[in-house]
Write a structure and sequence with these properties.
This protein has helices at about 15-20, 40-50, 65-70, 85-100, 115-120, 170-190, 210-220, 250-260, 285-300, 335-375, 390-430, 435-445, 450-460, 470-490, and strands at about 10, 55, 75-80, 105-110, 125-130, 145, 150-155, 190-200, 200-205, 205-210, 225-235, 235-240, 240-245, 270-275, 380, 385. The protein is built from 14 helices and 16 strands. By secondary structure, it is α/β, with parallel strands linked by helices. It has two domains: about 10-275, Vaccinia Virus protein VP39 (Rossmann fold), CATH 3.40.50; about 285-490, no CATH class. The strands form five sheets. The protein has an eight-stranded mixed sheet with strand order 1-11-14-8-5-2-3-4, sandwiched between helices. A two-stranded antiparallel sheet has the order 6-7.
């Protein structure tokens, strides 16, 4: 891809797979041929969701994603094609509940390709994370038992004997199926939600099958945007040494390849591909990041900021979470007016941050209001006629959220007015100049204001003249105007 993507390494094998599952999952879970490593699921849930969020795994197996989600206070829904694994996933959720997991989990026995049609319609548009892993067939999975004088015996190396199971449909069939699964995931995601898939390449007939690369393209075909490609390290880190955790199957393949004269190494990682929606609209928090980087670039050009690599594109940035304001200690100034200006900078930054947080709250409420109205107006959903009661419930939900939005927009107007007045008061105290942003930046830089505070202050000030009105329509009109400005600034 042309866009440079963020990259991080997740050390998920500090403990063995068996140790990670011990007493957290039923022992019989080990019979599943391809269990996701619990540390991967736990890290993904912690990284991309908050307590109370909803997580879905459309190919949940024995329920690893679900168990790790409910243990962290998330609600989880799993879909599993094979009844025996669906029952086991439900049993693992029951075990988690007995261990005081605070989230709620449920398992649906069905085909993950029908994700959007299997989950409760009320969940659509509200899911924070869809996390799963594709089936690979029997080549990478299973257990072995040493048999004296007879080598080893493989067992539990197949998902089932059902030829319709995705583990048995071949690479082309698997990619087609994953495209359908990802399209379904896009239908249930909330605007800032993500889809994550852990996947690794494998060898077939002497050729390396780049499944991660193929799935990255499949995700784009499904209308998603790839914005992270993480490395889940399948070896333990011990100081500057890697402790391998390779399975018998992985080692066996390497030994056989080398015996045929083919140089090969054991794979020691899985790719974690992460996509987001290719949204028609982006929340205000994304816009403020664009302004922040634009101002940072101008500031670096003018010598105001320390050098820092700018974000390549706002689509590739995760929506930032509200952060606690930085409370820098007030320094001692020789000039009393500088002390007043310092206090004004800190208070202005706090008001601007509150304004941006209120904008984000309005966006989230407007988005779910619009979705509720759309569901209430839709006679058919995924080809199925909606019951009139269901449509009325969605419409009533939209009316309720619309009322909440109007109240939030009134609060936003008041917050924006207060921030704008405070910004003007700050400018009044500073030396005269042609460019307001550079005036503030110059003073902050020369008087020791923290660079994060300065960057936040300058980027948020770009929004003081916005007017989102007091209705759903006026909010989207202003939101789309800002989007157009941001796209032009990012050209």
């Amino acid at each position: 891809m042309a866009t440079e993507l963020p990259l991080s390494v997740w050390p998920v094998a500090q403990r063995t797979a068996r140790a990670q599952r011990s007493r957290r999952y039923l022992d019989i879970s080990g019979t599943h041929p391809a269990k996701m490593l619990p540390a991967i699921a736990a890290r993904a849930v912690a990284t991309y969701t908050q307590p109370g969020d909803t997580v879905i795994d459309p190919m949940c197996g024995v329920g690893t994603t679900l168990v790790e989600a409910v243990h962290q206070g998330r609600d989880a829904i799993g879909i599993e094609y094979e009844p025996q694994w669906a029952d086991l996933a439900q049993a693992n959720l029951a075990l988690a509940a007995s261990q005081s997991a605070t989230g709620h989990g449920e398992v649906i026995c069905g085909d993950g390709r029908s994700l959007a049609g299997l989950v409760d319609p009320a969940v659509r548009g509200l899911v924070a994370l869809v996390l799963t892993s594709p089936p690979y067939g029997p080549s990478l999975h299973g257990r072995v038992t040493a048999v004296p004088g007879a080598g080893v015996r493989k067992q539990h190396d197949r998902y089932s004997n059902d030829p319709a199971n995705l583990a048995h449909v071949g690479l082309t069939g698997l990619l087609d199926a994953m495209r359908t699964v990802l399209r379904g995931a896009a239908q249930v995601l909330r605007p800032d939600g993500v889809v994550a898939m852990t996947v690794r390449p494998w060898w077939r007939d002497g050729q390396l099958v780049d499944l991660p690369g193929a799935l990255a393209s499949v995700g784009e075909d499904a209308g998603l945007v790839l914005y992270e490609r993480n490395v889940a390290l399948l070896a333990a880190l011990r100081d500057d040494t890697l402790v391998p955790r390779a399975s018998f199957f992985a080692l066996e393949q390497v030994r056989k390849a080398r015996a045929r004269g083919m140089p090969r190494l054991v794979t020691a990682h899985e790719d974690l591909l992460v996509w987001r929606l290719s949204a028609r609209r982006l929340p205000c928090s994304c816009y403020r990041r664009v302004f922040r980087e634009h101002i940072a670039a101008e500031g670096r050009r003018m010598g105001l900021f320390s050098k820092k690599k700018p974000t390549q594109t706002y689509v590739a940035e995760p929506a930032p979470q509200p952060a606690a304001p930085v409370q820098a200690p007030t320094p001692v100034f020789d000039d009393p007016e500088d002390a007043t200006r310092w206090e004004m900078v800190i208070s202005t930054n706090s008001l601007l941050a509150a304004m941006m947080d209120k904008q984000q709250e309005c966006f989230e409420t407007a988005e779910k209001t619009e979705k509720a109205y759309a569901m209430g107006d839709a006679e058919f959903v995924d080809g199925v006629r909606q019951h009139e009661i269901s449509r009325k419930n969605f419409h009533d939900m939209g009316v309720r959220w619309d009322g909440e939005l109007q109240g939030l927009l009134v609060e936003l107007q008041a917050t924006t007015t207060a921030a704008r007045e405070q910004w003007q008061n700050l400018l009044f105290l500073l030396p005269a100049g042609d460019n307001d942003v550079l005036r503030v930046g110059d003073w902050c830089m020369s008087h020791g204001v923290d660079s994060e505070v300065m960057s936040s202050l300058l980027s948020h000030s770009m929004f003081i003249n916005t007017n989102f009105g007091t209705t759903l329509q006026s909010f989207w009109t202003e939101n789309d105007r800002i989007a157009a400005v941001m796209n032009q600034a990012n050209q």
